[in-house]
Design a protein that fits this description.
Structural class: alpha/beta
Distance between the termini: 37 Å
Largest sheet: 7 strands, mixed
Bound molecules: S-adenosylmethionine
CATH architecture of the largest domain: 3-Layer(aba) Sandwich
Strand content: 25-35%
Helix content: 25-40%
Number of strands: 13
Number of domains: 2
């Protein structure tokens, strides 16, 4: 019988099971358990602490949506911070934009970057890009007391448990706000709208305590529990629904049309925030 991996994702009432064709790596870093295996449909999969982080087949949905919505809503993104994202997929997408002069890649666990370099060559960014600066440290620490010189901060962390919880606090959002230039924008993944309505609403509420503009968009991700995945955005003043730059990069999913339709309809958003979404 084929070997199976059962995911142990937090806050999830469904157990996802994947066929394991071959285990390519199984070990531990100072921070977490790391595993890479091959699945006949999804290709190579990266697992941290028994939670699926990405698959070769569908990673582009998440990485393109996490990055390009804001990269197109901002009029001139030059300095970008990516927190987490050790597989390099989000940084790869940010670096597609020629206007970008500097990317701080702030991943707490260097081993995730090393493993991704070895096993996910199609996912990881060009680590030699001169615009890139890698910092292996807590993202909350990185943004604390920075000068206000950043255009976009992107959080590509693990679920809001353990050492990733610092990235979902009011204190962290306040540090992010201080680190941004006047047109600055922020995005973080915020769990599933089908399974985690309360978490999504809580992230939105916390962001609203800090930022004047807060919004929500979604994307379909087959390998994240609940599948209807949310991305919470905040900005100093700019409406993230509006594209302010021409679309001129190669993508598989993101496009101006997707940008326009990705945001949660206003009526549904109102229901979410007034706790009337019960499912
Ligand atoms: N969005 C993907 C998911 O939820 O499945 C995340 C992929 S990426 C591999 C997540 C990375 O965030 C991990 O490598 C983890 O080490 C990093 N991370 C978690 N908390 C962090 C923190 N506080 N500062 C910097 N990196 C962090």
């Amino acid at each position: 019988m084929a070997k199976k991996f059962s995911e142990a994702a937090p806050f999830v009432p469904i157990e996802y099971r994947y066929e394991v064709q071959k285990v390519l790596y199984k070990g531990k870093s100072k921070f977490q358990k790391i595993m890479v295996f091959e699945n006949p449909y999804f290709g190579r999969m990266l697992i941290l602490d028994d939670v699926v982080q990405l698959t070769e087949r569908d990673e582009f949905f998440y990485h393109e949506m996490l990055t390009h919505v804001l990269m197109h809503a901002h009029p001139d993104p030059r300095k970008v911070v990516v927190i987490g994202g050790g597989d390099g997929g989000s940084v790869r997408e940010v670096l597609k934009h020629k206007c970008v002069e500097k990317v701080y890649f702030v991943e707490i666990d260097k081993k995730v970057i090393d493993i991704s370099k070895k096993f996910f060559p199609s996912v990881i960014c060009d680590l030699k890009d001169p615009r890139l600066e890698i910092r292996n440290m807590d993202g909350a620490e990185f943004v604390r007391n920075r000068p206000s010189d950043i255009d976009i901060v992107i959080v590509d962390s693990t679920d809001p448990v353990g050492f990733a919880t610092t990235l979902f606090t009011k204190k962290f959002f306040a540090s992010v706000k201080k680190s941004l230039r006047p047109n600055g924008m922020f995005v973080t993944h915020s769990e599933s709208l089908s399974l985690h309505v309360d978490i999504v609403a809580e992230v939105q509420k916390t962001l609203k305590k800090v930022f004047p503009v807060v919004d929500l968009f979604t994307a379909p991700i087959a390998t994240y529990p609940g599948n209807w995945w949310t991305f919470s955005v905040a900005s100093m003043k700019l409406d993230p629904r509006k594209m302010r730059r021409k679309f001129g990069i190669r993508t598989k999913y993101y496009s101006p049309e997707i940008h326009q339709h990705a945001f949660v309809p206003k009526g549904l958003y109102k229901k979410l925030m007034s706790k009337k979404l019960k499912w």
